[in-house]
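Sequence in, structure out. Go.
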Amino acid sequence: MSVNQDPQKNQHAIPSYLNADDIGAWGIFLQQVDRVAPYLGSLSRWIETLKRPKRILVVDVPVELDNGTIAHFEGYRVHHNVSRGPGKGGIRYHQDVNLSEVMALAGWMSVKNAAVNVPFGGAKGGIRIDPRKYSSKELERITRRYTSEIGLVIGPSNDIPAPDVGTTPQTMAWIMDTYSMNTGATSTGVVTGKPIYLGGSLGRVEATGRGVFTVASEAAREKNIDLQGARVAVQGFGNVGGTAARLFHEAGAKVVAVMDHTGQLYNDKGLDIYALLEHVQKTGGIKDFADADVISADEFWSTKTDFLVPAALENQINERVANMIDTKILVEGANGPTLPKGDDILKEKGIFVIPDVVANAGGVVVSYFEWVQDFSSFFWTEEEIHQRLVRIITDAYRSVSEVASRHQVSLRTAAFIVACERILEARQIRGLYP
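Output:
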């Protein structure tokens, strides 16, 4: 067992500016790192590298609102580890963004990038703001000021942001333009997830959902589950959940239950996914979709399925929810949707969990493709993007599955083993300077 399994012994890794009594998302990440320590052999001497972000930037973002008042927002950019390459991770605009969350998300990006073997380290950013309450012009001013504040740590060879919750390709365009103006040269490679006509990549919008479906298909093959007629439930119906639901539907599966911020729907015969996607695009949510029954959140989680895809926010599956879940394969489309205690319950129930760091890595893989295309100024077709994405995600899943089988551990632990070995080997080979 790891010497740091006792949470009290782990508090030295929780920075003094965080509340050690409420470990939050960063504490969860630390617990996950501790679980893989016994499998790292001689590399375990470097494990503190994973428990201490390389760089944390907290900035004030003052802007003038449309009504003439001055508002201040707190922004973050965290570099967790850059041993394997420049930092890579999204920027989140959400009213609940906090430093512990951003640190953990940066750590998960380090693991995700290493698990799928793209040459990036882990980074993440965010502003504590509810973007729905501000005009487009206000969001532009907020984004441009935030970009100027974090400009000293981002760059095509340093740290490449991307969209996340509450941000869009338009947000990335503002960041790219601001950075370019401040550096005196157009720099399309400073962000990914941009509009196509500013150097964005085809296939980026669907990439994460396509990755979710790809690993689900691999797991179905392993577990002898026929996708034709398989029952699927999806939490979250944005780019990730909506794309995954559509691909399941096109493969012949029945998406019987969906949940988003507006409610929960159920249809035992399978929802009309094309009609539901159109409804969501028009109304902003699944609420009031005609051809389905309205169910409670508890009924959604307890729906008997072959596949359950949580594709909303983190910390959704706690002990209570885990005890309700009745599925064969859980595919984490969101970042950190399952709390450690919930994870343990799912394992006890025999539910096969495909962890976020593999399941939702499609977005960062295509972000990598975008970054490469921007450097070369040579762009691939959407078919080429899909083929390359499927190959990388499939290879990553199979590598993690092999490690899980060899060590008799969960896929989550196996993914962390694969990723942490790659990160710490890079750290060890590079050495310490000075």
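Check: The chain has 15 helices and twelve strands. The longest helix spans residues 382-407.
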